[in-house]
Design goal:
Length: 284
């Protein structure tokens, strides 16, 4: 695993090695005081010399031991203050996200060129979360589809593979739809502490996004077809329930739905917490 070194300052370094330094200093003092007393003669100079040497050796040990640690970079992300931005995805980041999940999705992976055709129809439906270096942390895709397609899709006769660029609605039309499709979600390196932090940012950003674009004064229905166990767990955790069973569907995945109005949105927000300080939302 790639590791990053943390470099402490002068005082922090001595502080970090204090325990080892103190042990080394005490041991040195005992050996020196006894040795000098026997070899030379007991007295204040002998005692003073033993103290000075022990303190110097103790400090040396503390300096050596407190030199810093190698830790996995993802924990650095989690430990440092977040400074993320959630904004419409660049074509390059969308492609990178598609390539990242390809091994998980196998044959069900939608081709990056096809997803780019979707994005061109509604760039605001494809959102990325990036850090200050511009590195992709997470992304989500929320699209509108014609009612007739949505009905057939939710009944199980059509699959995500049937979504073409022409079928994806522009943002203006998407906002008017009673049912919206959450097509993709991903976080960088899911699992573990840092992955969980990213998932929390993802959920919070999605909630901000849904409120911004859909208002939610009138309830909207959100649909999702999770194709991995991880995403199925997440949608269940968000309160989605199965609308059509995998066995009855062409894609052989459960089709989930969730009604969201302002009250439901507030409940979800309370559960995930307030991440405003760590993530700026840019909708255009
Ligand atoms: C799908 C994906 C984004 C889910 O992220 P995840 O980190 O695995 O999600 P988890 O279910 O572990 O949830 C992460 C955290 O959010 C919390 N959480 C989940 N739902 C929540 C909710 N509604 N409110 C508050 N917190 C919630 C969980 O409790 C968990 O926190 P914890 O680690 O402190 O227990 C991620 O696994 C991923 O990117 N997978 C690869 C791509 C993929 O499969 N995409 C789906 C395509 S259909």
């Amino acid at each position: 695993m790639r590791l990053k070194r943390i470099y402490p300052g002068f005082v922090e370094r001595l502080g970090a090695g204090l325990r080892s330094g103190a042990t080394a200093g005490e041991a040195t003092f005992l050996v020196l005081a006894a040795g000098l007393a026997i070899l030379v003669h007991p007295g204040v100079y002998v005692f003073g010399a033993a103290v000075i040497l022990s303190v110097l050796i103790g400090l040396g040990f503390a300096w050596k031991k407190g030199k810093g640690t190698d830790i996995p970079p993802q924990f650095l992300d989690e430990l440092s203050d977040q400074n993320y931005t959630c904004q419409p995805c660049t074509a390059a980041n969308l492609r990178a996200a598609t390539e990242t999940v390809r091994p998980l999705f196998g044959r069900e992976n939608i081709d990056a060129d096809k997803i780019e055709q979707w994005r061109l129809k509604n760039p605001q439906g494809f959102m990325e979360i990036v850090d200050t270096a511009g590195d992709l942390i997470a992304c989500f895709v929320v699209i509108g589809l014609p009612n007739s397609f949505m009905q057939e899709f939710s009944a199980g006769g059509l699959t995500e593979q049937n979504i073409t660029g022409e079928r994806v609605l522009d943002m203006r039309s998407t906002k008017k739809q009673p049912a919206i499709y959450i097509s993709g979600i991903m976080v960088k390196d899911p699992g573990g502490t840092a992955g969980s932090v990213r998932a929390h940012y993802l959920i919070w950003s999605m909630l901000m996004y849904l409120k911004h674009h859909f208002g939610l004064k009138i309830a909207r229905r959100f649909h999702a077809v999770p194709i991995t166990d991880m995403s199925e767990r997440l949608v269940k955790n968000l309160g989605f329930s199965i609308k059509s069973q995998a066995d009855d569907r062409k894609d052989k995945h459960n089709f989930y739905s969730l009604n969201v109005d302002l009250a439901a949105w507030k409940k979800l927000l309370c559960r995930v917490g307030d991440f405003r300080a760590g993530c700026k939302m840019r909708y255009k």
